[in-house]
């Protein structure tokens, strides 16, 4: 491995093998690039599990201005309007790029793209591939393209554990593989590590997505943004399987209804009912479940007989649970689904650390605000991957450092899931958040398997505690009102640790005085 490491010195290194990472690598071609993937490409990336598709204003009755307006409304005052405008105006061309690469998007008999409807969209603008298999189809094409590209080297079974940083500048990556620790010297690193679902008991994400990109960036000193905003998808298949199988919003877009065990459509009083914004629907279902009810998705009439043809992945998951969606109600519950927050980046994906970029779910561009509009995530990834690649290609190689590789424990969030699920769920409470921060602080300072997940969880909990309002996907039962002035949150690891230490100190003082 040492000879290989020497030959890679100076190459851009992309950490992660999902849509954001693979597309960034392809856009960098023919410049040599190295992809580090913890698992075989496509085997455990959230991208491959994406059902909803990509949102883009492609209909004759649509326009990017309308798409931006829907995005800003869903974001509840926290979207960056300039960034949203640039990304969503670029979306139609990005869809065309994927089609040129060979992605088989669903089309009408006349050959036009078939456009679906999802919650909080004012127009049909969701592009699918293989019904509810959009992510899988896109990943198929990108993996084939990457493997056939001679300028891209993929190293699988290798996990990035730390970034080497000097003077706020990236110098390399410490990684671990089955043989021994490895150090890759480079001045250009792209984080494309995905989300945080593995931190929760109930998630639709691969369990290996446990906020490792956040921990890497935080330990490197990067600024993170809006970490408190975590989207809980309202309709995950409620059963023993983990991760929970997702039931795409597109099913409701085709007319499926949400009912309880009595058959009541308890969302009827909501504006747009089943197609209200995700945070609204998730909280309503969570409350109904908490009150002792059971909740179901009823697709027996709509989509009805065409269910399996339109949504083959979901139909298969239902069959695996002994459910026939044409005849049976589908039990559902909210589950962690997407992280609106992440490493703070500009439009080129640059972080606050020189030589470090972020793309995809691990990044916070400002597009999603407090509540992601359905199917904007893959759109963001495919648009921003090109801009990140252009920025990386136009940046100096930088100073490459040689270093002895060191053994760093693999992250394991298992022991933290109950705590994080209880404190950072659909509804939150200040006292519970303070207790979580106090518990996570000593864990984050250790150097064991729980420390990196604890760092990610601690920073999210601190951000959630500091936001003393309810906005979008962040709902505080002790602060149910929305502040008049919207503000994005920004935080570093040092700031989070200092805040947590101050809270712990004040709690100890209060106990002493009592």
From TrEMBL:
Gene Ontology cellular component terms for the protein in this record: cytoplasm
Keyword terms: FAD, Flavoprotein, Membrane, Oxidoreductase, Pyridine nucleotide biosynthesis, Transmembrane, Transmembrane helix
GO biological process: 'de novo' NAD+ biosynthetic process from L-aspartate
Location(s) in or outside the cell: Cytoplasm
Domain FAD-dependent oxidoreductase 2 FAD-binding: 13-378
InterPro entries xref list: FAD-dep_OxRdtase_2_FAD-bd (IPR003953), FAD/NAD-bd_sf (IPR036188), Fum_R/Succ_DH_flav-like_C_sf (IPR037099), Fum_Rdtase/Succ_DH_flav-like_C (IPR015939), NadB (IPR005288), Succ_DH/fumarate_Rdtase_cat_sf (IPR027477)
Transmembrane segments: 12-29
EC number(s) per entry: 1.4.3.16
Catalytic reactions of this protein: L-aspartate + O2 = iminosuccinate + H2O2
Domain Fumarate reductase/succinate dehydrogenase flavoprotein-like C-terminal: from-to ranges: 457-493
GO molecular function, one term: L-aspartate oxidase activity
Names of required cofactors: FAD
Primary residence: cytoplasm
Pathway the protein contributes to: Cofactor biosynthesis; NAD(+) biosynthesis; iminoaspartate from L-aspartate (oxidase route): step 1/1
Coiled-coil annotated spans: none
Chain's role: Catalyzes the oxidation of L-aspartate to iminoaspartate.
Record-stated family: Belongs to the FAD-dependent oxidoreductase 2 family. NadB subfamily.
Protein known as: L-aspartate oxidase
Source organism of this protein record: Mesorhizobium waimense
